[in-house]
Specification:
Elements (H helix, E strand, L loop, with lengths): L5 E5 L1 E2 L2 E2 L1 H17 L3 E7 L6 H6 L4 E6 L8 H15 L3 E5 L2 H14 L3 E5 L1 E9 L2 E13 L4 E5 L7 E5 L16 E4 L30 E5 L9 H11 L2 E4 L1 H5 L20 E5 L5 H4 L7 E6 L12 E4 L2 H15 L1
Parallel strand pairs: 1-4, 1-6, 4-5, 5-12, 6-11, 7-11, 13-14, 13-15, 15-16, 16-17
Antiparallel strand pairs: 2-3, 8-9, 9-10
Helix pairs in contact: 3-4, 5-8
Length: 336
């Protein structure tokens, strides 16, 4: 049997499909339409069938469903064994995983077993052609990711063996509007697993709630090297608190120790699309712009009128942020 689809591994947590997996189904739909093939999804877990409708609404044509109590939580050996089985039997031409802890664990196991290529931590995926040593490859997957510490963007291909496999960073693919009228074929698969496939047992699962939600924020106030110091970041936090915003940062600010890496926005951080993004003391290197240039409104504050950030900002303020931000806070409080 050969379906030649674009396949997505669905990561689920407590029976709910992860956002990154739904983002990838949306992207898979786009790639599959270009290739004129179907989108398939693999959903493994216990009591997860209720998520099929959500997965279908994002663009899936087929959902391979494996439900069993022992599969409630991800463990490497049984999950990778089942994924290898499904990929081997159905022969998709592309398989996508989220670049999460789980995706980064299972993807290389599957790729190694099948002896195919795998590109990690992609930030874009495209379909194109490639000629190599007089051999022309049509409609192959361009796997695009930062390289050399984010200083260049590399396009990687693995055309000689199928499937082409990639893990994709969370948030970089736009999640489509759900189409609840879509229908998909559900293919139930019985897990042929023995006790030897479960050498480990999860006794207790402890999950720490995220204190920062850049992806879901409507307003983000970000600081860069121009903030000057860790202490000066208090001004960024004060503006964010006043506006009910999350605090973001450029990679340069994180590298300097001004703020923690969980706040980093950009190609090597979190990709965001808030309604309002305020960039304070951020020059606007391409790596940062790639992670926030889809924001609905961008305000840039910088004392350099030639800073690249002004090229994408809807509103630009040339000035010292230590003077501008207090005035913004005062003006906002006066209005409310």
């Amino acid at each position: 049997m050969s379906e030649n689809s674009v396949m997505v591994y669905i990561q689920q947590n407590n029976g709910k499909a992860a956002d990154v997996s739904l983002e990838l189904v949306s992207k898979a739909r786009e790639l599959a339409d270009r290739l004129k093939v179907e989108v398939s999804a693999v959903l493994i877990g216990a009591d997860v069938s209720s998520e099929i409708k959500r997965i279908t609404s994002m663009g899936a044509d087929k959902v391979y469903l494996i439900e069993e109590p022992r599969l409630k939580y991800y463990t490497p050996i049984p999950y990778s064994k089942l994924m290898i089985q499904i990929v081997s039997e159905n022969k998709p031409q592309i398989v996508l995983y989220g670049a999460t802890t789980e995706g980064r664990d299972i993807a290389p196991r599957v790729a190694s077993n099948l002896k195919v290529g795998l590109t990690a931590d992609c930030t874009d995926l495209q379909i194109g052609d490639h000629t190599q040593k007089e051999t022309e490859y049509k409609d192959i997957l361009y796997q695009i990711r930062p390289a050399f510490g984010g200083n260049i963007i590399a396009t990687i291909i693995s055309p000689e063996q199928k499937p082409q496999m990639a893990t994709v960073r969370e948030g970089v693919m736009r999640m489509a509007e759900p189409d609840l009228s879509r229908k998909a074929e559900t293919i139930k698969i019985t897990a042929k697993l023995s006790a030897e496939d479960f050498p480990t047992e999860i006794i207790e699962r402890v999950m720490e709630a995220k204190t920062i939600n850049l992806k879901g924020a409507n307003i983000i106030v970000s600081g860069g090297m121009g903030v000057g110091s860790k202490e000066n970041f208090d001004l960024i936090r004060e503006l964010a608190k006043t506006l009910g915003a999350e605090v973001g940062a450029s990679r340069a600010a994180v590298d300097q120790g001004f703020i923690g890496a969980e706040h980093q926005v950009g190609q090597t951080g979190t990709t965001v699309r808030p309604k309002l993004y305020i960039a304070c003391g951020i020059s606007g290197a391409i790596q940062h712009r790639a992670g926030m240039d889809d924001s609905a409104r961008i305000i840039a504050i910088n004392n350099d009128p030639e800073a690249p950030i002004f090229g994408i900002a809807h509103y630009g303020i040339v000035g010292d942020l230590n003077e501008v931000i207090p005035r913004m806070i005062k003006a906002y409080k006066a209005r409310v």
